[in-house]
Every structure is written in C-alpha cells, then in structure tokens.
Amino acid sequence: MANRLKQLWAAGKAAVNGWLAIPSGFSAEVMAQCGFDSITVDLQHGVQDYLSMVQCFQAMQAHPVTPLVRVPWNEPGIIGKVLDGGAMGVICPMVNNRGEAEALVRSAKYPPRGARSNGPIRAGLYGEASGYQVTANDETLVLPMIETREAVENMEEILDVPGIAGVYVGPTDLAFSYGRTPKFDHEDAFFLEIYAKLIAACGERGLYAGIHTGSAAYAARAIGMGFRLTTIMSDSSLMAKAAKAAVAEVRREAGGLA
Description:
Blueprint: H1 4-10, E1 15-20, H2 25-32, E2 38-42, H3 50-60, E3 66-70, H4 76-84, E4 89-92, H5 98-108, H6 132-139, E5 141-146, H7 149-153, H8 155-159, E6 166-169, H9 171-177, H10 189-205, E7 208-213, H11 216-225, E8 229-232, H12 235-253
Parallel strand pairs: 1-2, 1-8, 2-3, 3-4, 4-5, 5-6, 6-7, 7-8
Helix pairs in contact: 2-3, 4-5
C-alpha cells in the first residue's frame, strides 16, 4: 500500500497533520473529511487506547489521509502492534540518542532491516497483491521525537540512523528541558535557531522535519521555515477553541442577556 505522505513529500509539498486525542471513530471520521493530509492517533497523551485506535483507522479508511500513531514510548511491543493495526507511520516520544533511535527503527522494520515480528493482522488486509511485508519497510515511516536538550545535542547522530524518515519536534517538552515555560508556538530566537539547525540537518540528509503547533498561523509559519509535517493542535483542542469562541460570541451579541 503506497504511503500518500511519502508521495506528498517527494513532490516537494508539506503535509498538514490532524491529531486525535478523542477515542471516537466518529471524531476521526469528521476530522478525515476536513482536508488533512495525515492524521495521528495519540496513544501517549490522548485518551485513546489500542481498540479506539483501530476504530479511528476504520473510520478514516474511506478518506485520503495517511494514518499515523504516536506511541506511548519507545517499546517494541506497542510499536509493532500499531503497525499491525494499520498505522503507516510511528511518531515516538523522547528519543534522545543514536541508540534509542536505532532501537526504534529495529522495532518498526521487518528483517533484515529490523526485528519487527510478522503478523500484520489488520495492516495486511490492505497490502498489495505481492504481500504487505514486501513493501512495509519502505512505506511505513519512522519519526523519532526531538523534545529534549539531550536530543538536540545528539541531533546529528539521531538523523544519521538508517531507516528514519525524519523527526518530529515536541515544543512543550523541549521548552521544559531547557527550564523554560512549556508552550507550542515559540517566538524566542533560542528555539527558532534550534529549529533552523534541525531543518537544515534534515535537508542535508533527505529527511523531513515535523512539528506540533498550537495554531493554524504558526503551522503555516512552520512550513515557511522548512517543516514538512505540521500538526494543528488536536481534535479536542480544536473543539474547545471553537466552542469557547461560539459561546463568547453569543454572550457578546446578546448584549448582557446571556
């Protein structure tokens, strides 16, 4: 099965990524019809579990979005399981050095490139006639997260690990690790310099940098910086933002009656 996200990148385009914290196939179905290029089910900080992830994938199946998953941790069992469930890419938190990046790739790739166990119970249903296993190593994306001071210091060695497609920046944890206030959309020159260095290092290697953002405006700005995967908040955050705006509008327009 061809990975549309890879095709988009190969065409020189950036991808707009959705994010699912809500464990609902209906929420996933709604998001999949909103124009996103890819949608990530968050098993780390969302309230999703494995079965709700599968339901989200089933709901998204009819729409041209690439299904991704952020796993809870760099652990081979869950990495293999989300790929077996149909994920076309894995975003993995807290990858801080070459060894951890190598372990991630090993968990996500079949032999001889890795040690992923064979059993694509759901993913195999959508493989090509020649078999899912034939194309899986090339079509599934491995994206370690850069979100700590240690990871920034080891950026080059992480990017040099064969098998990764790029990296994904976690801005809030990155700020935490430097003793700063955690936030999504950094304007501080300190962080912008880190981003520029990361984007340049990815470009030199033919890799792609992604980032989590807190607004559509910053997501667009990030694309201008050179990021090629930009996430606009999450389904729960987008819903809360729209709901708050609607309630505020009603109270404002009602002239003190509500």
